[in-house]
Amino acid sequence: MVMNVSGYATKSAKDNLAPFSFTRRDPRKDDVVIEILYCGVCHSDLHQARNDWGNSAYPMVPGHEIIGRVISVGPKVKRFKKGDSVGVGCMVDSCQHCDACEEGLEQYCEAFPTFTYNAVDRQDSMPMFGGYSEKIVVSDKFVVKIPKGLDLKAAAPLLCAGITTWSPLRHWKVGKKSKVAVIGLGGLGHMALKLAKALGADVTLFTRSPGKEKDARRLGAHQVVLSTDEKQMASVKRKFDLIIDTVPYKHDVNPYVPTLALSGTLVLVGYLGPLEPALHTVSMIMGRKAVAGSVIGGIAETQEMLNFCGKHGITSDIEVIKIQDINQAYERMLKSDVKYRFVIDMASLKA
Amino acid sequence: MVMNVSGYATKSAKDNLAPFSFTRRDPRKDDVVIEILYCGVCHSDLHQARNDWGNSAYPMVPGHEIIGRVISVGPKVKRFKKGDSVGVGCMVDSCQHCDACEEGLEQYCEAFPTFTYNAVDRQDSMPMFGGYSEKIVVSDKFVVKIPKGLDLKAAAPLLCAGITTWSPLRHWKVGKKSKVAVIGLGGLGHMALKLAKALGADVTLFTRSPGKEKDARRLGAHQVVLSTDEKQMASVKRKFDLIIDTVPYKHDVNPYVPTLALSGTLVLVGYLGPLEPALHTVSMIMGRKAVAGSVIGGIAETQEMLNFCGKHGITSDIEVIKIQDINQAYERMLKSDVKYRFVIDMASLKA
To answer: Of A145, A200, A189, which is closest to residue A165 (Cα–Cα)?
Structure first.
């Protein structure tokens, strides 16, 4: 018995999102059926809705920052019960037996993870639809618990923006003595500031916008460096153990490399494409510096991040919207006019 | 009393090297005076003699793979005595108090290390001349001991080619379970194969030349992958923890990134310049992969590498030449016609 679900979809790269009815699979033994309460709006929703990466399939229901309540669980599900507050992020499945999956790094699954939307199910090859909808059916291994005390709507962006910045902070072992910089103050950037601060690091924001200083400091930055100002850039030469580059479009990475400390790493988490202007090796070689990439995080580390956020009272700064306003929200995102994440109140779907 | 020294120098980017007489400084209290027996010929000697990097000063006496015998020592020198077999590599001084120097990583000195030639002395601002000469005067902190049993002439290239590949092998913790690849089989590449093998790693050579397979296996490669063959490249997808890229000219790094294992690193040790074609971030992000740079190594790790080579009987494969043949040797290097390092027998200077 498949279930009928309402949501919002786009039918091509050029269409707006509009009401859409579709079906979800009959729950399997390890499935959790979730009523979606809130869904964050990620920049990659926009990229995929408009086929910016050239791999979009339609109709597409975007959304992978999903917060909901458990409606029912399959007979094999032990960790969740009806009424639990849960989250679903960017992935809903993976091969579960390659080295990456066995390390709990399903995002790097050698057979490629199954993303929450714009993907097909590994078992029945049916298209997967995302969180801009009323319900979702997900294998329990890919469902996480939302700690008590966190505001549910403001927790939604933790499922992508949060874990995308948490994973490199943990992998590169950021702690009390670390010097961390964040490039760009958007959805990812503002989470990076909060998480790095809470981990005890000395935190700097690189921005091109002088107007962002006050907010950056409120969000956790100890220092704000205007990346267009050569003097300010020179003042942080050789400073950072880790730079998290959240910029989602083509940009010059070269000016940041000299601000890395000996053996430091600049990790790209927001940009898919060629590094142009070309990365120059001299600054990398003279200081054993690295440029790396990282994508979201594994399920276990997503739960770890949520527990950390529960303990430290960390959520995203959000603007709640109705699903009917999603197209305007996309236009505002293109102008970076959001502080710092739109979250859809899914109750609006019934309006 | 400065000392008169004979050697070979070039007087401009367009001149050949020719006999040259110059003076070395009066030895200071911590100086070691060394009779040069052998000097390796590094690709960077050629780059600097011909001003390929745009920073050459003339007259220039190249040479930074120096093996010699101690003639005398200053009153403060405790570690060396007359008659000792010693080596001098790419550096002869550094600030000695920045974080990098205090970590024993003088090559990353924040005030820039003083290179063995094409540099000026930190104390008297006099030009430094390299190892294509009969004697050199060097502070004892930058002199290393050559373990007994190593063939002195074949040990010369360890001072640059050896340490340049050793340092990343150690920094990225290569050991018995590691899978290491080396790009390019030249002076650096052949040392990387030998050292990685002796460290217990599973070693692969990437090459564009099918004819190099036999030699590569003799030097330590367990596998040889023809980088021009897509099938062979696909067969090593996601394999390597570390790739040491020794190629000294512009080349496309992108095809190698997918051959890195999860969280693996490709480290550039031979190329100074822009990464063109542009490095693409998708392969880096989908597997948390890094592209890094590394240059030579610190004095303590140079001594560690020499001791390791002494224990394992590792030296370079060399072709001994007379100083009078240096210009032809440069021409042959440009054609990669050397297996795998020229070493000048400095006795020829007196011929």
So the answer is: A189
In this complex, how many residue pairs, one in chain A and one in chain B, have their CB atoms less than 8 Å apart?
120
pTM for the full model?
0.96
Q: All domains of chain A, ordered by start, with CATH?
A: 2-160+297-350 (3.90.180.10), 162-293 (3.40.50.720)
Provide Rg for chain B, Cα atoms: 20
CB contact under 8 A, B281 and A265: no
Q: Is the pLDDT of residue A320 over 70?
A: yes
Closest CA to A112 of A101, A104, A125: A101
CB contacts, 8 Å: B108 with chain A:
262, 286-288
How confident is the model at residue B1, as a pLDDT?
A: 64
Q: Nearest to residue B236, comparing CAs of B245, B248, B246, B227?
A: B227
Q: Which residue intervals of B186-273 are DSSP H helices?
A: 187-198, 213-219, 230-235
Residues of chain A neighbouring B281 (CB-CB closer than 8 A) = 268, 271-275, 293
Interchain CB distance below 8 Å, A277 and B282: no
- Spatial contact of B284 and B290, defined as CB atoms under 8 Å apart: yes
Q: What is the ipTM of this complex?
A: 0.95
A contacts of B283 (beta carbons < 8 Å): 293
Q: How far away is chain A from the Cα of B6, in angstroms, using its nearest Cα?
A: 32
Q: How would residue A1 be classed by pLDDT, with cut points 50, 70 and 90?
A: low
In this predicted model, what pLDDT tens digit does every residue of B318-331 receive, in sequence order?
999 999 999 999 99
